[in-house]
Design goal:
The chain folds into two domains: 111 residues, Rossmann fold, CATH 3.40.50; 54 residues, no CATH class. By secondary structure, it is α/β, with parallel strands linked by helices. Helices cover 22% and strands 16% of the residues. The relative contact order is 0.15. It has a four-stranded parallel sheet. Strands 5-8 form a two-stranded antiparallel sheet. Helix 1 links the parallel strand 1 and strand 2.
Amino acid sequence: MSASSGSPSVRGRNVDIRKPRLAIYQSWLANAEEGWTRFVLDQFEFAYDIIHDADIRAGSLNAKFDILLMPDYGGGQAVVEGYTKGTMPPPYVGGITPNGLRNLKIFAESGGTIVFMNGICDMAVEMFGAPARNVLKGVKSQDFICSGSILRLDVDPAHPLAYGLSKETACVFADGPAYEISPSYGSRKRLKA
């Protein structure tokens, strides 16, 4: 597999596309999704940097990156807190901390894009104020079972995030959240976090 060498065909629009500076957050917490995400990026020949807790705590993310991928680490609080003192050597404890959370907000408010993946999406709602509600939060598994199901997605192929996709495509639901977007979102400024 390789990245496309051609330009996207978008009717009625002339869109300049530049290669984004991409980073993937790698917590010191164990996580298979982060590894699989790197695998997919490698297979499609995306250039990316790996950043850790200390990089986010240091700030100035916009100077280095345009897009930050946040894989699922079981929730935002786990990312903020990380391993507790005494459970790991000092360089690997403490998470991104509240200061790092503030730096992520600055990154988003300054034009950076944060892609929250699966369960970490609740971080966007709870800690960034995204106008959405996880309709599956608190729902018991015996009341909602969909894991492994193949679902149909309706896509706007004219949107830059969907270039190359057809109007209908498939996805696999893997025990993740589902969101209801607040009705007022359409009249609000574009969500940055």
